[in-house]
Amino acid sequence: MYHDLQVNRLRALVTVVDLGGFRRAAEALHVTQPAVSQQIRQLGNLIKGPIFISTGRELRLSPQGEELLGYARRIVALNDEAVDRFVPPAGNVRVSIGIGDQLAEALPDILRLLTRGMPHAQVSVRTGLSESLESQVTTGQLDLALLLQPRSPRASATDHELGRMRMDWFGQPAHGEGAALPLTLFTEPCTLRSRILEAFDASDVPWRVAYEGSELVGLRAAAKAGLGVACLIANGDELWGLPRTVRFSLPDPPGPIPVTMAVSTGSATPGFVEIAKKALQNALRGYPFAE
Q1: Looking at the DSSP assignment, which residues form a beta bridge with residue 122?
Q2: Torsion over CA of 100, 102, 103 and 108, rounded to 10 degrees?
Q3: Is 120 left (phi over 0), alpha (psi -120 to 50) or beta?
Q4: Neighbours of 32 (CB within 10 A)
Q5: Hey, which of 54, 76, 179, 230 has its CA 20 to 30 A from 291?
Q6: Which residues touch 289 (CB under 8 Å, ≥6 apart)?
């Protein structure tokens, strides 16, 4: 047979001990003093003995009461930790956002502008490939995501295209005349990868995959190391110090690629959408949008 230790009874015990009396505990807990006394008696029934040896001017716990107090502190603390994790304080909201990794350099401005519009928001952030972040918006794991890809056919009415980003080629790999040009690509599924390969397949330039990975940091490292040519947003030289590709006859880079603000259906309140849209637009000023 199991007995449930009700947290309100344990909290009453902790508060009585910490504040040094039943009356002060009742005031702090916003209940009556008889209610606190009853909760302590109920705990006494559980341990089959008194919680306190003395409740006069100086409270004295019984040995069993002392032992129970240790458990009570831990259980109350764990309860409060769980509540803080899943239930925001009154007046606060939780906002989870995703940022496509090629746009993540704008994250400081995004956070500053978003919290200025929502000063009581508790914000969490994820970065990664746009395709993965879009899926997390669809399933409600993210409230909003800034994506470098077209709007999905399943996009909600609250999704917005914020503009179209110019792309360019980066990297100076060792490449012999007539040899297949080495490329560095994101792993599938990736909208940008598909467009890059379409551009090369439509050209006369032979190519091969020299590097592929799911993270931008790896792709940038491969381009800097001379493993192959990468197609990234057109200010990649300014953002990451990447060398522009100038020695090869390349097809035009794909794009411009749409920059999309995707919003989860459950988060699509007009106020939130407008604040987020304005924050993202302002944070991306200076990025290479097509005219």
Answers
A1: 94
A2: 100
A3: alpha
A4: 12
A5: 230
A6: 163, 164, 165, 166, 256, 259
Q: How many residues comprise the chain?
A: 291
Cα–Cα distance measured from residue 130 to residue 81, given in angstroms and rounded to the nearest whole number? 32
pLDDT in tens, 27-81: 988 889 999 999 999 999 988 899 998 877 788 899 999 999 999 999 999 998 8
Burial string for 228-259 (b: 16+ CB within 10 Å, else e) reads: bbbbbbbbbeebbebeebeeeebbebbbbbbb
Give the residue from 199, 206, 195 showing the smallest Cα distance to 248: 206
Pick from 29, 124, 58, 35: which is nearest to 85 by CA? 124
pTM: predicted TM-score of the whole model, two decimal places:
0.67
Name the token pair of 144.
């909003």
* Cβ–Cβ under 8 Å, residues 131 and 189: yes
Nearest in space to 261 (alpha carbons), one of 170, 167, 150: 150
| Chain segment 114-148, per-residue pLDDT in tens | 988 888 788 899 999 999 999 999 888 999 999 99
Q: Are 272 and 157 in contact (CB under 8 A)?
A: no
Cα–Cα distance between 217 and 213 in angstroms, integer?
9
Question: Residue 105: which region, alpha, beta or left (left: phi > 0; alpha: psi -120 to 50)?
Answer: alpha
